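Worked Example 4.2. Consider the chain below.
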Amino acid sequence: MKIKNALLLSFLLLFVSHVSGKSIEDRLKAITGISDVEKLESDHYAEKYLVRFIQPVDHNDPSAGSFLQRIIVAHVGYDRPTIMVTEGYGAAYALRRGYQEELSRLLNANMIFVEHRYFLESTPEPCNWDYLTAENSAYDLHRVNRLFKDMYKEKWGSTGISKGGQTTCLYRAYFPDDVDFSVPYVAPLNFAKEDGRHEKFLKEVGSEQERNRIECYQTELFKRKGEMVDLLSAYCNENNLEHRISMAQLFDYCVLEYSFALWQWGADRTQIPAVESSSKELFAHLMKISGPEYFAENQLNTSFFVQAARELGYYGYDTKPFKKYLSINSTEGYLDNILLPQELVGKVEYRPALAQKVYRYLKDHDPRIIFIYGEVDPWTASRVPTFEGKTNEFIYIQPNGSHGARISTMPKAMREEIMMTLNRWLNE
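Applying the procedure from the previous section yields the following structure tokens:
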């Protein structure tokens, strides 16, 4: 009966809106600050639109100019909750007609998907890196939230994946009352530019047999370094990849990155080639898991690396097992030296204030937040702490889960518990 009534109410709202001339598209076009509205196709939402919203480049200084932030509005019903996706990167994938965000699917909710500043179409011109800060990104989200609160008056939630999950957390720390609950997926809380906990995690994750197999594979790559560097050079030429370090150094980083990348995405450890495999087989597997694209110049992740170096923190590498093979003296500072834009090398100082702000917010308050992590994902090494006495902060870790851990990938008992909590929050 409740479902039928909800469907009837949703239909009536849409009917009245249509008759009065206030369609969703009309309402979007009437919102001050939205520059244009484009209708999108969707297999899952009743209506879906791409809008561009005028944002200040610097929320503390309007004279710094403005930029257009890309937002996707997916409508289910005015009587339904709304999920705000605090994307940490670009929004292009959410434009697909087949895309459906998990939380909006599970809760039959509207979706407001916000592309992060300085990514893809939401990049200011000129690109002044000074304004790429957590505070500005939080204010971006706050203004978007205010923009649509009059349109969607039911409960609001926020969610994001990985860097988007970090954004969910910092957004709550800056504006704790904008949403009623949050679900950050695989969101790290790093406390340094090279946090240090990830290297220790990689020494303990999985079984001893798996870790030995990974290290033996890496060692064999290094033993054949001459052949591998030639193969890597050819690969980079074929794919038009440019790097600011030598091929030998690039190879070192690809091999050092391998164990992190393998566990992050939960790759099948049984598919690691045996040490007696041909050099081409060993190399092909390395390119599949940890290719040189990650370290290339002018890549799409440049804005992320700026944020990681400045406020979000990152991870380092344990070079001890391979010291005698390396062409690099030390990996310390690699984020600055090979991943930041050339004009910022040596000029970005890590600011611990953001991590401390998020930590204090979670410690001193009890916001309605469900954290989702994967057991073997190295980012879980820097997950949010467990604080005693909390009744609304929950941490769920998917057994053998990777960076792809979601509510739907959890064991049945965990999944049911999460959904019970979310539905209770919606009904309170």
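The longest helix spans residues 2-19. The chain has two domains: 21-191+353-427, 197-344. Compare this with Example 4.1 before moving on.
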